[in-house]
Amino acid sequence: MIKAFSDKQIASIVADPAAAVYLLDKPRGVNSFQAISTLRKLLNQQKVGFSGTLDPLASGLLIVSTGKATKILDAFHTLTKTYQAEILFGVRSITFDLEGELIKNEQAKIFTQDDLEDVLQNFFGKQLQTVPAYSAVKVGGQKLHKLARKGKFVDLPKKEIEIFSLEIKKFAYPNLFLEVQVSAGTYIRSLAHDLGEALGTGAVLANLRRTKIGHFSVEQAVSLADLSLESLKAGRLDLADVIQYLNQHLGQ
What we know:
Elements: H1 7-15, E1 20-26, H2 32-43, E2 48-51, E3 58-66, H3 73-76, E4 81-89, E5 91-92, E6 103-104, H4 113-120, E7 125-130, E8 138-139, E9 142-143, H5 144-149, E10 158-172, E11 175-182, H6 188-198, E12 203-213, E13 216-217, E14 222-223, H7 229-235, H8 239-250
Parallel strand pairs: 1-14, 3-12
Antiparallel strand pairs: 1-3, 2-3, 4-11, 4-12, 5-6, 7-10, 8-9, 10-11, 12-13
C-alpha cells in the first residue's frame, strides 16, 4: 500500500529544480517509451518516467515526471482511469484487440441496445478479471506476452478490479462506443472480450483513448506533435498542488 507523502518528502521533491510533472497526449501508433524518449531528449534529462503504460494501439493521457518528481509516479497508479473504448462485436482475437488475427464468429447473432444494457449491468462493481495472455504481467519471472509469442500459454492470473461506470455513447451493431471509468489495473481489452462472450458474439477492442487519470484530463495535455520547451513550460503542473491532491487520495 502506498503511503501519503510526509512534509519532509514533499519539501525534498519540490526543492529539486529538475522536478516537474507534465501531461502528454500520446498518439496511436507510438508506444509509451518512445514518447518518454522524445521528452528526455527535449529536456536533456535522463531521469524521466511515466505512470500507466498505454499500448501502441491506444492514445491519450500519459502522466510524466522528471527529477525527484519521479518518486510520486507510483501514487498515480491508485487513481481511477477513464477511457473511451470502441468495441467490435462478432469477431475474436487471441490478443483481445486488432493486433491479433481476427476470427469471425459465423454464428454471431445481432443483439439490441436493450440486450446490451442488460448485460452491462453485470459488469459493474468489484470483480476478478483474468489478465490477458498478451500482457506485461509476469508469471514465474517471465512476461506473459513473451511466453505467448513462444506458444507457451500458462494459467492466467486473476486480479481484483472495479468498474465504476459504463456509458454507451453510440451503438449500432457490431460497433459500440463506450466510456468507462475503472480502477487501476483494469484491462479494457479483457472487458471487451468478456462483454463479447457474455453476449455470445465475441468481441475485440478496436480503439482506446485514455481521457482522465483521477482529475487530470487529456484536455490539459500537450500533444506529442506539439511538444516543445515552450509548450511544456506552459503545461507544467504545480508540483505542490499535485502532491497535495495525491495525498488527499492516499489518505482516504
